[in-house]
Write a structure and sequence with these properties.
Blueprint (H helix, E strand, L loop, with lengths): L6 H6 L2 H14 L6 H14 L3 E5 L2 H14 L8 E5 L4 H9 L3 E5 L10 H7 L4 E7 L8 H11 L2 E5 L20 E5 L13 E5 L2 H10 L4 E3 L2 E2 L10 H11 L2 H18 L21 E4 L3 H10 L27 H9 E4 L7 H12 L2
Parallel strand pairs: 2-3, 2-4, 4-5, 5-6
Antiparallel strand pairs: 1-7, 6-7, 8-9, 10-11
Helix pairs in contact: 2-9, 3-9, 4-5, 4-8, 10-13
Length: 366
Amino acid sequence: MIKFLDVQQLNARFEEAFKKAFSDFLKVGHCILGKKVAQFEREFARYCGTNHCVGVASGLDAITLLCNGYIQLGKLKLGDEVLVPANTYIASILGVINAGLTPVFVEPDYEGFNISSENIAKQITSKTKMILAVHLYGELADMAAINILAKKHDLLVIEDAAQSHGAMDVNNLKSGNLSNAGAFSFYPSKNLGALGDGGAITTNDLALFEVIIKLRNYGTSEKYKNDIKGVNSRLDELQAAFLSIKLKQLDADNSNRRAIAKYYIKHINNDKICLPKYKGSMDHVFHVFVIRCKKRGELQEYLLKNGVQTVIHYPIPPHKQKALQEFAYLKLSVTEQIHDEVLSLPISPVQTSVDTQKIVSILNQF
């Protein structure tokens, strides 16, 4: 069986370094917000090209804390509208809602998966105060166009970069450094994944950085002095140590992902399967490789019978989830069709060429 993603094999490459990091951690005995978190924050900020990075507990918390940070700074207020992609994982939407803001769903183009800048332009109103761009599946949203619209209408822009660690635009600017601030997840399956939960916020805004540092740790400026109402959302010291180890391998891993994606695109030849549009640039890191098929159920069952695991990202769009039933009235035909057709193929830095070729051969016989 070709696994969709072998997380154990991914992490086995770092086993000795992980063991040493854990041993050092035990010897130091500093479990919360210690030197390893500070080290990783410096390293990840430098990697992304930003001045600041704050380690937090998850990608969802990163979005929520970003929104709350702007509320604390007076740049947003409760109830303000945020334009969000209709086609995304529910965490993107929950982060906005959890901060007391109002999401407004924007459709993607059918040819792509990311939020459409043309549709953003149509939905900006006097109530719009921010745009949340999600780099879905590892591909950068059209940040140049989005930032132009934001500047024209005096809007904030933040990135949900949970799936796009290391993706880079034509100006060599990386994901997380293409807007006012970026939100990352280090969930174990991500391109840069921890061995548990974790997240981070990147920004060049010193005031935002300083307020989020407080927000993540009960609103404290120093021990037992609480300046604002905060939460407990801290990147774990041990996970930070593991992430520092894996960060050194991230660019090479992304290159391997792109190589597999290019092979898929070149060699999958089946008119029942719609391949993603990709020009071979650095703006995609292929967190997942997503195809579309009108007979998705049949295709997934066929692949499984032939020893290939696949995953659907995502079977139910956010506005159709029971948790967000207040948005069930929306008619988002493009998003709904995409969610009915998408299927993610195996792709990872440790996937062998033999497995990749076998997957292509099986797909071409469907």
